[in-house]
Each structure stands twice: as structure tokens, then as C-alpha cells.
Amino acid sequence: MRTTELLPALLDLLLPGGCGGCDLPGPSWCATCAARAGPPHWTRGRGGPPVLAAGRYGGPLRRALIAYKERGRRDLAAALAGLLATTLAAAMPPATWPGPAWAGGHRGPVRWIVPVPSRPAAARARGGDHVLVLCHRLAELLAVSGGHVAVAPALALSGGALDSVGLDAGERTTNLTGRVRARRAGLPPPGARVLLVDDVVTTGATLRVCRRVLESAAVTPVAALVLCDASAGRPAVAAAVQRR
User: Fold this and answer.
1) Radius of gyration, CA atoms only, the chain
2) CA angle 86-76-98, nearest 5°?
3) CB 169 within 8 A of CB 203
4) Of 161, 67, 172, 155, the residue nearest 122 (C-alpha)
5) Residue 23 needs a FRET pair 20 to 30 A away by CA distance; which of 16, 115, 187, 193 works?
6) 13 sits in which H/E element
7) How are beta strands 155-157 and 180-182 bridged, if at all?
8) How many Å from the N-terminal Cα to the C-terminal Cα in the chain?
């Protein structure tokens, strides 16, 4: 983090409050910003799983994600997870997504969500893996709809991966190939059908690589769920996405 960004980040961490989308005093995610976040939509997987996005990468949703991801506003996790849960319920009713699969120790169906991993250095700088935290909050919300929802930290990203900002789709794929690996201890049972979760989709390269790694471990990602869509067609927006 640059020195010029340090003071605002510390203030956000020490004195969180107000809407993450518009900064107005009150709840962390106000009704006005919630109404402006969507609409949810599907985007092409381009060799990866189909991608369901809560909204485009812009406006209050972009500001809230940056506050959560880069400025320590972990109080926004519940609101952003709620947005993901609402998006998922509208597009993929609980009875249809993904699974069910069975796991030892559970008497009912288990539905699995797999967070896309962050670079270790980025996670340390942020005080933890922001997508993993989001997934745990999402699982709590989805479990209310019935069945058992489990977070499977099935993927890891090696420290050799570069910051993806400025890389095109081919360069991102090259950067990640061989650096995303399956974590045996975090994998769901063989044959499980899972939902990948990430914060932003840009070129889709990360989701493609994650899909291949999971499939090599006999796990099938049937779809991906993301907060923001910054994919092709909005190149200026895609280029501005915060580092992974």
C-alpha cells in the first residue's frame, strides 16, 4: 500500500462507519446503494464455469468492494454476503444449486462453496483472505435456506504469482498456470459439484484455471458467483480493478 493511502486505510480500520457505497452516516450498506448495485446477470464462462454477477464493477458496489477489500471495512462482509445470497436465490434457487453431494458426518445434502484464493502477500497485507471471509458469511446465510452449506478452502495460490493488474487474458492464464493448486485437506469429496466464489471477474482467466485444478481433483465447479463483473466490453473498467 502506498504511503498516501495508509492514513485513510487506518482511519477506515479504526473508525468504520457509514455506508460503504456512498459514505453517508448510518448502516454499512444503505437501501439506496443496494438498489443501485444490480441488476444481477450471467456472463460467459469462456472456458470456465458460467458466471453469475451481482452487478457491474462501478458505482456504489465498486466503492463498497474496495472499502471491504483494501481499506479494512470488514463490517461490510455481512452486507456483501447478503447481496451474493440474494443474487444466488434469484438466479439459482436453493433446490437447484449445486449438488447435492454427500460427506461423512452429515445426514443431509451438503452444498459446497469454494473461494478463489488470493496471493499470500496480498492476504497478509489485508489482514486475511477477504474472499474466504465473504464465503463464510455467505454460507451462514445460505444454510438458512435449508441443507448444510460448507466452505471448502480447496485452492491455494503460490507466492510466485504476480499481481494481475495490467495483464491480459493470456498473460493472466500464464501467470496462474501451475501456481493454483488443490489443497487436499480442503477438498470436498470426489464427485462433489461446487460453486466457485470470487469478488470480481475480469477476463475469466482465474476462474478457468481454478476450474481445471478442481476438475483434476474430481470436483466439478458448476458455476461461479461474483460480486462485480468487469469483463470485456468495459476495458477501462476492467483495467481499474484492484489487485488480487
Assistant:
1) 17
2) 35
3) yes
4) 161
5) 115
6) helix 3-14
7) antiparallel
8) 13
> Do the bridges between strand 220-229 and strand 51-56 make them parallel or antiparallel, or are there none, so unpaired?
parallel
How far apart are alpha carbons 154 and 183 in whole angstroms? 5
The answer, yes or no, to whether the previous bond of 190 is cis (omega within 30 of 0) is: no
Question: What's the rounded Cα separation, in Å, for the pair 22 and 24?
Answer: 6
- List the grid coordinates of 146: 435449508
220 φ/ψ angles, rounded to the nearest 5 degrees: -110, 115
Among 229, 138, 154, which residue's Cα sits nearest to residue 193?
154
C-alpha cell of 243?
A: 489487485
Question: For the whole model, what pTM was predicted?
Answer: 0.81
User: What would the pLDDT profile of 92-107 be if each residue is shown by its tens digit?
Assistant: 766 566 654 433 333 4
Model confidence over 127-161: pLDDT tens digits? 889 999 999 999 999 887 666 889 999 999 876 65
Backbone φ and ψ for 46, nearest 5 degrees, come out as 50, 50
Q: Which amino acid is at 236?
A: A
Distance CA 22, CA 7 (A): 20
